[in-house]
Fold C-1-tetrahydrofolate synthase, cytoplasmic.
Amino acid sequence: MAAQGGVAKVLSGTDVAKEIRLGLANDVAKMAKEMPGFKPGLAIVQVGGREDSNVYIRMKLKAAEEIGISAALHQFPRTITEAELLLKLKKLNDDPNVHGIIVQMPLDCENKIDSHLITDTVSPDKDVDGLNTINEGRVAVGDMNGFLPCTPNGCIELIRRSGVSMQGAQAVVLGRSKIVGTPASELLKWNNATVTVCHSRTKQLDKVTSQADILVVGIGQPEMVKGSWIKPGAVVIDCGINAIPDASKKSGSRLVGDVAYEEAKHVASYITPVPGGVGPMTVAMLMKNTVLSAQRAFNKLVSCKWNVRPLPLKLKSPIPSDIAIARAHEPKDISQLAEEIGLFPGEVELYGTKKAKVKVSVVDRLKHAKEGKYVVVAGITPTPLGEGKSTTTIGLVQALTVHKGKNAFACVRQPSQGPTFGIKGGAAGGGYSQVIPMEEFNLHLTGDIHAVSAANNLLAAQIDARIFHEATQSDEGLFDRLVPKKKGVRTFSAIQLRRLQRLGVSKTDPESLTPEEKKRFARLDIDPETVTWKRVIDINDRYLREVTVGQSPTEKGKTRKTGFAISVGSEIMAVLALATDMEDMKERLAKIVIGLDRNKNPVTADDLGVTGGLAILLKDTIHPTLMQTLEGSPILVHAGPFANIAHGCSSIVADSVALKLVGPDGFVITEAGFGSDIGMEKFMNIKCRTSGHIPNAMVLVASVRALKMHGGGPPVVPGIPLKPEYTQENLELVQKGFANLERHISNGLKHGVPVIVAINRFTEDTDAELNLLKQLCEGTGAFRAVICNHFSIGGPGAVDLADALVEACSKPSNFKFLYESSLPLAQKASIIAKEMYGAGNVTFAPSVELKLKEYEAQGYGKLPICMAKTSLSLTGDASIKGAPTGFTLAVNDVTLSAGAGFVVLYCGEITMMPGLGIRPSFFDMDYDSVNDEIHGLF
């Protein structure tokens, strides 16, 4: 039946689209209120500049602005090639701030471009036009979770607004185009209409259309459908838009649809006008898809719920070697893991299929997201064999992620090749709680340590080169070579201008400097006796501990005694670990002090002009490496400063990325080196002071074996079988050694965080010993003591530990620093020694006292203290076990790490370059070239 009065009701797309835009604007405002700064992003890609395309683009930009969508036009010249356009689309696909991408068709290009390839290159998750084959296929099979094509979806919305039910209705779609006809028929079908698709070759077309309760027309022929073709009372949706001559119009033409409107309106019950019908709805549906895409991204940010697909453990008894276990477990493709934890493709740089760099830009993308709980893992004073701190870290995160359903990251240090080939044989955890692929974790990984080595040695080379050139050049010759004429003109580089500013010279024209200013600028006048910067190598090599450089005749007798440190002992490694982003790293690199000039002024890397070169070598190191546990949960591996000579923690960047990714209900388990006296103390007072992250809890790893050693057991020596005291039950030794664990518990409590003791079970331990240790922890102030078996059975063996941690972190953090930055350097060191180690007195060598006063005079007095001491004792003497009190701690040396941002005090002999033993670990290592397998890593 026709509408009352014989005229169809007009389905105004303009009015409905306005209503939809208002609703979308409200949706956008709600998201912005909950997460300030969040805004849907739409990218419109245009090739060439067709005026008809420009009209449509202006409509889309105007609608986006009304709603609050950040829309950007990416217009490319007609000369663009297909390959170039594909690259542009990839960048937009990878941009997390872009939620929708549309490619304006047709492409106005001189070169041949496959438009179908272009629409299929747009990510299905950003294909707000609904033209990607994947989204089209979803519609075809009734999956409405993708993006619905805009014009057909607009048609469906207008039909709904008519009030005419699609269920059971006879629907005819005239036209079978990819953009309108075919998807419109699919949508009608899934709205339970009975659909007939007609086209130019359909016989008796007018008879078919006259049977339709709902008629959708998109044939591309002006006013083709006459009133006689329409069933009385039908709903008519006209998708056509055609220009026909009209002498009465100023333009000489007017727009009409594919339906003869003046005839049809007297037959149909509802009809869409042209213009003002389907056209505005197409734009509205495009905006709706964009907001929908943004809402999906927003919900991921708010809920942060991961979809980690766990890997099954293949447990065996007796427990095989670590490498045998690792090799028996096939890791997931790292890109899959990245997707599971909410990373975007553009935030992940693949290194093969099992490891990838995660861009630090993730932190900026998630800057408005709430962070997770922050947990540090440290140990008691260990035996030389280690007590399973890394193993516990990994087992705990497996338990949290796989068995407790929590978002959880482990952040661990990258192991040095020195210990790997020397004594440890690997540092990926152990048993059924380890990082895989184990071989890649323990060897080159993504090359960060090598980059640190190269940067360190570039600075070392520049130091000696500068000393040499200053000794062999006149002031004028030195200046001329530092600021050479290029095409007859001298100009200062940016780094040279910074040096002039530090000298108090405001001039920028090299020719305007006086001879005195040129001399001050050109001569660093480094005192070779004060140079503290050493070369590094990531191999244990005792013969490099002290070397003489400059013995070639070309160095003209400018010899100097120096030495090598292991790469992870470089200050640049500490800079990497403490930098918050690349700009912060550059500032820290610039501040590195390599020694003094002859007037006792600090000489920096920036003075040497090398900051930019260091940054270039280190540009990729700022991004942490994503790997996985045996059970498929995520690990971030980054940086590796030694704990006994540096601050011994993984990076701030890795922790920052992880804290954002896990969300407010998630956990980041980060590792600190050795015992609480070294690693945890530096984590709290150096790392947390720098990052601003507040720890929620501390997991303290203890073992029966270590307590027996502290209770008076015989020495534990790597490579020598354990003595009977360690392999047989001995409750007395456990009881006597407990004082060491008690001190470490106290150390955590002094920082205001709950301490959970993880009692790492070893094969030799008896139930009586483990239960005694757990009982002893009661009354010490520890939040909980948990016996763990994660080495033997993986995550399930740390579930109780995970439960205790979740409970502990549910309470507010009362974290506090051990000392105030404003205190004198010596006083800060005394507080650490007395509060953390139990010392009664701290003595400073006269040379140390002098240097501390010099550092304070130079403006370094507020830096935190990094104590360099043995990890095998609470004292400065590795042979002293247990928990002695009242002893004197002697500080015999001090160095400044101005770039890293701390002052290093040395207690006793600290080896910066380890040596190889009689039988290094590599005796058991080999490479099977036939099967491409590494053997012999522990």
Observations:
- The mean pLDDT is 94.
- The longest strand covers residues 667-675.
- DSSP finds 33 helices and 38 strands in the chain.
